[in-house]
Write a structure and sequence with these properties.
By secondary structure, the protein is α+β, with helices and mostly antiparallel strands. 28% of the residues lie in helices and 13% in strands. The strands form three sheets. The chain has a two-stranded antiparallel sheet with strand order 1-4. It has a two-stranded antiparallel sheet with strand order 2-3. The protein binds protoporphyrin IX containing FE. Protoporphyrin IX containing FE binds next to strand 1 and helix 5.
Length: 186
């Protein structure tokens, strides 16, 4: 929601996509919402809720020239990987369209994007989490127009993230929801 408020053009594209046609969104409709899906993907790239993944090597391994003995705790920085300029063009920018013609997914098969980890200890709830995020966001975009309160400027939004096991906004987002006139009488 923060990134969409900061990027009104993107929010407008998502609203046009989700408002096309129906007064209510079903889970099946999400499959055709490519712009919405790209927004959620870009969000977990730029703001992964879990930045550091801790894994223990169960056997000696050699990886990219490094010897990692069994029992070593390996910390993988998914936050930094998602912003690596070797993998991403303008990595600090919120540009969901980068995913529109890209096969890169978040399921741990492409190591440029691992918000849910990868391999045997990867997240078991990936599909559930993403479907929930997409469904909630689709409905928020479908039913309401959004603005910052009191004419606040998006440039002044504090983007500081809190640290901890999971990362979120340091200061909660305050946004004003106005029921969308296209569906408020349905
Ligand atoms: C956006 C939401 C979520 C994110 C970003 C996320 C991310 C992660 C990450 C990074 C890991 C560790 C992977 C690793 O160390 O390689 C993990 C593990 C796990 N997640 Fe999630 N998760 C999310 C939501 C969920 C949900 C909704 C569920 C269950 C319904 C879930 C269930 C699990 C389980 C069971 C594990 C442990 C897997 C194992 O150790 O074998 N997660 N998740």
């Amino acid at each position: 929601m923060t990134e969409l408020l900061r990027h009104p053009r993107v929010m407008n594209n998502v609203q046009n996509e989700v408002r096309e046609g129906k007064p209510h969104i079903t889970a099946d409709d999400l499959e055709e919402m490519h712009c919405l899906k790209a927004v959620v993907k870009e969000t977990v790239r730029l703001h992964p809720p879990i930045a550091l993944h801790g894994l223990e090597a169960i056997e000696d391994v050699r990886l990219m020239g490094y010897d990692i003995p069994a029992g070593t705790l390996v910390i993988i920085n998914a936050w930094a990987i998602g912003k690596d300029p070797m993998s991403w063009v303008e990595p600090e920018e919120f540009q969901p369209e980068r995913f529109l013609n890209s096969s890169i997914d978040f399921r741990g098969h492409e190591f440029e994007l691992i918000p849910f980890g990868a391999g045997r200890r990867g997240c078991r709830g990936t599909s559930f989490a993403m479907a929930t995020n997409e469904f909630v966001l689709a409905n928020l975009m479908h039913k309401f127009d959004w603005a910052l309160p009191g004419g606040a400027k998006v440039e002044h939004l504090d983007m500081t993230e809190c640290s901890g096991v999971t990362i979120r906004r340091g200061i909660p987002l305050l946004a004003v929801a106005t029921p969308c006139s296209c569906y408020c009488n349905l």
